[in-house]
Write a structure and sequence with these properties.
Elements lengths: L3 E7 L3 E8 L4 E9 L6 H18 L7 E8 L2 E3 L4 E5 L4 E4 L1 H9 L2 E6 H12 L8 E6 L3 E7 L2 E2 L31 H4 L1 H13 L18 H9 L3 H25 L3 E5 L1 H5 L1 H14 L2 H4 L3 E4 L6 H7 L1 H6 L1 H4 L5
Parallel strand pairs: 1-4, 4-8, 9-12, 12-13
Antiparallel strand pairs: 1-2, 2-3, 5-6, 6-7, 9-10, 10-11
Helix pairs in contact: 3-11, 5-7, 7-9
The structure holds zinc ion (ZN).
Length: 329
């Protein structure tokens, strides 16, 4: 019999919900809702419940056909209690998501964080399949990573291992959202790149990207890609600079951890091939010869769906022997 679960990727800008066939990672049905204007626990919970009901209808399944529900949250969570401790992007704190959803659907609910579920997705059905020692790095609004060692995710002593976005690449450098200065994500995240482009335009630099921008239209990944294709000087310069910083972060990971593969995901990596190529080429040059001699780079294979597939597989992963041997926080 086929095994189905619901996977939910609860991010700061969107809630992606999918009905997933756990045997092969196939998405049976999925729905995306914006979270932006509906911050606050009540509205978020309401949207999640609605999304679950909608994917079941679209996938022609009943709640009794699914095994469980897995959710990955962009924030700090308590894995055992299933509580969202703090998610500033969602305006949620101390939200017992597990209890609320278990009462609503009478199904087991598991909670993870956003990077964790995307890493599990890539581990089971993506670029990390058949790999034992790898790091998944996601470049988005911020930069986060999931560390896999001998087939297990490393959570660290207090559950925050993998905060690669806060590796310091420039002492006393640009301010970062964490309160520190000079962190990698203040140089190579999508947000950092957008800030650089907007700042340069305000100073009067000319760029091809101006043709796509309007007052209320933010910079989109597709605009960055088009500008690079048109060999726009400003955007190329800013992406080159971001690549140097990202490569420094990647080289540090290669030297420190000696993984067999680094998987790079997130919208910018997926859509802007130049950024991926440039960063990985420089990382290989910048890292030590022995750990970098056989290092492989790959793009996340499941794209936007890494998270929901991983969320649907949370129970599978946590029921595995490897997860239970760890002291998971
Ligand atoms: Zn930081």
């Amino acid at each position: 019999m086929r095994k189905y679960s619901i996977g939910i990727d609860l991010g700061g800008t969107k809630i992606l919900t999918a009905l997933v066939n756990k045997d092969n990672g196939e998405i049976v049905s999925s729905i995306k809702k914006k979270t932006k204007k509906d911050k606050g626990p009540d509205k978020i919970v309401h949207k999640i419940i609605k999304s679950i009901k909608e994917v079941l209808i679209e996938g022609k399944k009943e709640i009794t056909d699914i095994e469980d529900i897995g959710i990955g949250v962009a924030g700090q969570i308590d894995r055992n209690k299933g509580i969202v401790i703090n998610a500033p992007n969602l305006d949620c704190a101390n939200l017992n998501l597990k209890e609320i959803l278990e009462q609503e659907f009478n199904k087991k609910v598991l909670i993870g964080n956003d990077v964790e579920i995307a890493t599990i997705g890539e581990m089971y059905f993506g670029a990390g399949k058949d790999k034992k020692d790898f790091v998944c790095i996601f470049v988005g609004t911020g930069i986060g990573s999931g560390i896999v060692q001998n087939g297990e995710i490393r959570y660290g002593a207090t559950g925050t291992a993998g905060e690669i976005g806060h590796i310091i690449v420039d002492i006393g450098g640009r301010p970062c959202g964490c309160g520190g200065c000079g962190c990698l994500e203040a140089y190579a995240s999508r947000l950092a790149i957008e800030k650089r482009i907007i700042g340069a335009l305000k100073k009067g630099r000319k760029s091809d990207i101006q043709n796509y921008l309007t007052e209320d239209k933010p910079i989109k990944t597709s605009m960055i890609r088009k500008s690079l294709e048109n060999k726009d000087e400003l955007v190329t310069q800013i992406i080159n600079e971001a690549s140097e910083y990202l490569a420094s972060g990647l080289a540090s990971v290669i030297n420190f951890y000696n993984p067999e593969m680094i998987i790079l995901g997130g919208g910018l990596m997926d859509a802007v091939g130049y950024f991926y190529e440039k960063s990985t080429q420089i990382a290989k040059i910048k890292s030590l010869p022995t750990p970098s001699c056989n290092i492989k780079f790959a793009k996340a294979q499941l794209g936007d769906f890494s998270g929901v597939i991983g969320a649907a597989l949370l129970s599978e992963y946590r029921n595995s022997k490897i997860y239970n041997t760890e002291n998971n926080t």
